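Hi L.,

As promised, cAMP-responsive element modulator isoform X2:
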Amino acid sequence: MQKTIMAVTGDETDEDTELAPSHMAAATGDMPTYQIRAPPTSLPQGVVVAASPGSLHSPQQLAEEATRKRELRLMKNREAAKECRRRKKEYVKCLESRVAVLEVQNKRLIEELETLKDICSPKTD
């Protein structure tokens, strides 16, 4: 693996990179040379990490794992849909109850209005 060494002025760096002093002398002599290193948790682009022999899976194991994940996802989706339907029923019941209360209130107000009209209107016989 070849290491890249370059002089850095500060504009070229990323937040994800780290500068470490190089043990090689700078080409110009007056400017220190720094080596750009990626943080230890990330890998350079294009690097493939080989899995350990114990973690390799056969196509059958991969298919079984995919099936298991799909079934788990479907089960979670069914539960979420069931909960959604329950909440919707509760909401509809609440709305129906509110409609009933408002209908009673509306009927009472109409009756009160009719009574007040009878009291205030001049009687013609």
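Strands lie at 18-21, 34-37.

Thanks again for sending the construct details.

K.
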